[in-house]
Write a structure and sequence with these properties.
homotetramer; 254 residues; alpha/beta; eight-stranded mixed β-sheet; four-stranded antiparallel β-sheet; globular
Chain lengths: 254, 254, 254, 254
């Protein structure tokens, strides 16, 4: 049953339009007419909601990825879900993990990390730009993940993390090399470092910093997710797609 | 600090050998000599342990993926970590999720799912072969995830899941099409179905069953993880690698 | 030196616009003004040509792929250059080859094959649609490859090829399976068959026909060409790209 | 019909063994017994040849790629066929082309280029190591392509090509950057340069040299060929494969 504040995934019945909206959020406008989201409070999952134009929508509970994709405000380039879960894996992040992340950006990866560390863990997220931080605060609150996140306006390349014994440190920033030695100090022995790089020059400089700092178990992977068309009789990969996001460096604090 | 029963990742200092062993598990044999794992009880993370041949090992806390990769007994073809976390994502699995899985196989995916649903969630895992189930029980106990898993000897293609209101159902079996209608009954509205297929014929038959059962938001993706050589001066992808594991069908119960 | 009838690749000096035009073709309109192509007759390769708007263009000899990409009229879905040269390779096509192709479509692959079989070889190209054939005739004549091509309005699925002892047969059509037995008759012993498939259902039906007809050395490959951004300081793959065109089945007539 | 000196592809009837041997080459040893290759002189394509152990082989005319793969002596790392035809395409090489190549290595790419430039074209191939050159001479003669190849012991990084007005220059060497300015001098206006790089550092240095020398139309591509298992009922990509060979830089002399 939907509660006030839940996010609903609204799928046009028999149609191609989809949106995500907050249950109990009043009347919202869509390209298929107005939708009264208050009407979903207390309604069972799967209920049908009609718009002011008579278009019917099936209301399903939205996943964290649905909300991030449809509702998060985007200030900076955001990490893709395929890379976010890869980082979650190579950084060994799960329920209870204590993770530091820099930079916060719009908070996409922050939200994913926070979602997986619940209910005991915490994500310390650092950002040097106030405008990004403001967007991230709004995004993270909107999905109710603020209890698991500590945001801080701080340039970790200069000031470090001010933390110790972390399970993982994730760097998604223009100059992670300066932050790598601080990451080492902040990690517990065996803790994991993950760095996201989008160009080969960034990759090579980041790798050099990781080796220089004495990390071990260094690996680099790129993750490609190819979408297929699920139409029976003509099943095949989509013609066009994303062929590059970035490389993920992973290493352990030995 | 290591406690009895923890898994340690043991990395040869300055060398290429690595293994995973249970802290407090007595003396174990490796190709670098015998290691006394009792000596690690109470030792801090990052301690050095010497083998009977004088080879020194750094002892780090192992991640769930380290243990699965090195220590799980393998009876059936096991799902790759890259696909496991993709399934975790598309199935919306996280702390608190109630998930059903069939078949259990050797319990690799079961362990990954269980690790992410902690501490409130549960994985109901179904397998029709007793020999597989026995291996899975051992594997899952060895990592202490048995409180989050309910294993059952049952052919879900014939008998269904006997459950309702699940957040997700994951099918990794030879004939998932017969189980798809039961999966629909077992899911909550909006709940997610994920199916793993390794051949195009299996993929097409599974897709047909998913459409026939009335699922919506159907997608198919293949995930390719390309490892790179992190050697400075000659950074490049590895020459050889895994170029196929399978496709992951995802759908929602509308 | 450019001769009347040559194709020139015209690159805007210091800019991003590029076009392909026929030397001696009179005045042509571009989005950068009019260009007098007669002025290039007798001019050396690399000459600069100014448009009516004063935009300067460097004139280089165009390759066959430049002309096909920019100037060929497109009636049907055309095969990509990356797949065309793969077919040339697996079909063993080169100077002197005798090749049959069906269907002709807009003649893109026909032109590539014809270009490589020069000066002794021949491409027999079959098409059942007259409107496609008319476009193909124009395209092939425009690049002067008509001496190497014999176009025929004929449904090879019904009537076969009417040829024997061919080095290679290439099928790029909706229902190649019906033509496969005829292809076998038309090939010399050891001759190569290549089939282009764009969906898994098409691929599986085509493979079944190839095995049924008794071909050997059967292989299937998909070719992915990933473009990289060559900008120094930010070298990386392009973000978006073509991730699917089709599979190429290759086999030998044993 | 086979002539003395032709290469035959010998496929075990109903079996998995294959080899390539020279027709008229006398008795050769295989793991399936001795084969008398003189018996094939004058025999039609598709003839069956029995070994001394009674194993039957179907004899088909070998393609240039069959011979290169099975018979060429390998001294240096050889370029893959998928990359060779990509280079042929981006360098605009075809019948009649005048191409320079450095280094020769074992002559794999030399042979492919020579095969496509027949009957009017020529490949000038430069190598600084005498031991490589000797292997290349043998390889190229063995396929009868020596009339189309001029091999030279010369370090083009130091001495340039000593040629002018070429259609294409192909560089597959450790330090192509030093040779790039010489390549520009050797090319006709509009001529194509292709460089093969296997590491990102090599790629970046090569790109810098190409831009420095004033080439235009610079592109970088990597070509991935994924083999599929053609077994009906379980059609799927092969599990393991080559995931990296190198990048191909292409540019035009503007």
């Amino acid at each position: 049953m939907f509660k006030r504040g839940d996010w609903a995934l609204l799928l046009e019945v028999g149609g191609g339009y989809r949106t995500v909206a907050k249950v109990g959020g009043g009347v919202v406008q869509t390209i298929r007419g107005f939708l009264d989201l208050d009407a979903l409070v207390g309604a069972p999952y799967g209920s049908v909601l009609s718009s002011s134009l008579g278009v019917r929508f099936k209301a399903l509970p939205a996943t964290i990825f649905d909300v991030i994709e449809h509702r998060f405000k985007r200030k900076a380039q955001a990490i893709y879900p395929k890379d976010a879960v890869h980082i979650v894996r190579v950084a060994g992040v799960g329920p209870g993990s204590r993770v530091a992340e820099a930079g916060t950006g719009s908070g996409f990866l922050t939200a994913v990390l926070a979602w997986y560390v619940r209910p005991w863990g915490v994500v310390y997220s650092f950002e040097r730009r106030l405008d990004h931080l403001r967007v991230a605060v709004d995004n993270i609150r909107s999905v109710g993940l603020d209890p698991y996140v500590e945001l801080q306006l701080r340039d970790v390349s200069v000031s470090g993390f001010g933390l110790a014994g972390l399970d993982a440190v994730v760097l998604d920033m223009g100059d992670p090399w300066a932050a790598v030695p601080y990451a080492k100090e902040a990690l517990k022995p065996g803790g994991a470092l993950a760095i996201f790089s989008t160009t080969v020059e960034h990759l090579v400089k980041s790798l050099a910093a990781v080796e220089e700092a004495g990390f071990c178990e260094v690996s680099v992977e790129e993750v490609l997710a190819r979408r297929w068309k699920p139409t029976l009789g003509e099943v095949r990969p989509e013609t066009f797609g994303v062929v590059h996001t970035g490389w993920i460096i992973a290493a352990r604090n030995c």
